[in-house]
Amino acid sequence: MLDVHDLHVYYGEIHALKGISFRVTEGEIVTLLGNNGAGKSTTLKTISGLLTPRRGGIVFDGRPLAGVPAHEIVARGIAHVPEGRRIFNRLTVRENLTMGAYLRTDADVAAYLDRAFELFPRLKERVTQVAGTLSGGEQQMLAIARALMARPRLLLLDEPSMGLAPVLVEQIFATIDSINRQGTTMLLVEQNAAMALSIAHRGYVLETGAVVLSGTAGQLAENAEVRRAYLGE
Fold it and tell me: pTM to 2 decimals?
């Protein structure tokens, strides 16, 4: 579904991604692990068209994404849940969800709204509430639900557990797993490596803009270096 090959991305003169390559197969959850500054968020931003690579290629469903504007990438079936949620604080929950479907002209938008409320019942209770007044956990639910309103085939998730209490982290990850089981492929960036590996099928470890390790989630969870660096053992 997604093939990233020899991707080089710069911030000015800073070489942020140094030739990373990886793939995501339809139906999978693939996780990117690494410390702050490893290039994980940069990778997602480049896939979604927010950054332009200097070299390398990104192919989605057999079509290259080079030079494709961000809104067209959404239309092709990729949605991005950014780090920090980035909801529209002054809009209501319903208005935020409607914005997620701004490119759609089909008749199923209402059904997707119902699905969002099934996945996140709390949002239905808050449907007329201004989004900026929601709790951190509720805002994360809204950010994911808004992305799903675009009807993505590939969902990019950047740090969905950031700043959340442990009980909410478990709830968010259970919902992410459920969304995947319903057919949405995912590329997940997450500092909580244990939670990420508990639901992922495969993963890649990034260090200073390069892939240094890859394998199934089980292989990475048993890897001594991964356990020491990311699982606190």
Answer: 0.91
